[in-house]
Amino acid sequence: MVSQEQRRRQLAREKFLRQQQRRTQARRKARMRNTVIASVLTVAVLGAGGAYAAGAFKSDDKKDTSAASTASPSPSVSSTEKPEPKMAIDAKATYTMTIKTNQGDVNIAMDAAKTPHTVNSFKYLADKGFFNNTKCHRLTTEGIYVLQCGDPQGTGAGGPGYTIPDENLNGLGKAGSDGSVTYPAGTVAMANTGQPHTGGSQFFLVYKDSKLPPSYTPFGKMDAAGLKAVEDIAKNGVASGGQSPSDGAPKKTVKVQTVTVKKD
User: Fold this and answer.
1) How far is 249 from 243, CA to CA, in rounded Å?
2) Separation between Cα atoms, residue 160 and residue 68, nearest integer Å
3) DSSP secondary structure string, 177-189?
4) What does the domain layout of the chain look like in residue ranges?
5) Residue pair 155/19 in contact by the 8 Å Cβ criterion
6) H helix intervals, the chain
7) Between 202 and which of 57, 122, 150, 187 could a Cys-Cys bridge form, CB atoms 3.0 to 4.6 Å apart?
8) How many helices (H) and strands (E) does the chain have?
9) How far apart are CA 264 and CA 177, in angstroms?
């Protein structure tokens, strides 16, 4: 017999997955739209001839990696994603990611041996200031208990323009009969589109034990002060006008000021 609490959690998980699927569909539509725009621009560029040759239409790689530019993909970029950053970390080392926010600092211990692609990507983005002056756009307070951040758009649809592979999916143990595992309070994990290997820059901070499918790369652990800061944010609840009274933008606005990733 399934208890009322188990049923409530199951419904919350199913809702979470449906929302991820809707975001996937939105991203696909956006990519298709960008492909059409890119085709139109290609014709225009060919007609411009000399201007293109002179570099008037050359993309700025440095701008492409900033939070501001990735918030709205350049229409000259095709739907093909960029490759993930080249490996530039010590895959045997541990790293600390420090997220400075207007609501307190969160220090996250990361083990590169377990999640090398994830740690490498976060260091790459942090070094470029990708996360600076962005907002944590989503808080859930029922069924699952997470604060989601890392989207330069602040809508849940933004990312760095590339994806990274899933890692450490068995790190939290074997899934139970309901297909879920417990993401313990303090866990930091990658958000994705609901499909394998679609992580980008978005991540979530678990402030209370939450059951989810083992589909989200767990890559770090918050320190006690960081967990307390997220708990305090959650206590204020969700802002009105969200997806539901328990799922939406946090009422207490969370602004990420800077993110740094350093080798221990």
Assistant:
1) 9
2) 11
3) TTS-EEE-TTEEE
4) 1-264
5) no
6) 4-48, 50-53, 61-64, 67-70, 116-127, 224-235
7) 150
8) 6, 12
9) 38
DSSP structure class, residue 43: H
Question: In a structure prediction context, what are the per-residue pLDDT tens digits for the chain, which is 264 residues long?
Answer: 556 776 777 777 777 767 666 665 655 554 433 333 233 222 222 233 322 222 222 223 333 333 332 222 222 223 347 999 999 999 999 999 999 999 999 999 999 999 999 999 999 999 999 999 999 999 999 999 999 999 999 999 999 999 999 999 999 999 999 999 999 999 999 999 999 999 999 999 999 999 999 999 999 999 999 999 999 999 999 998 766 899 999 999 999 999 999 999
Structure tokens at 174: 């074997």
Q: What are phi and psi of 183, to 5 degrees?
A: -90, 105
- Domain at 1-264, CATH class: mainly beta
* Residue whose token pair is 């040759």: 53
Length of the chain as a residue count? 264
CA distance 55 to 173: 53
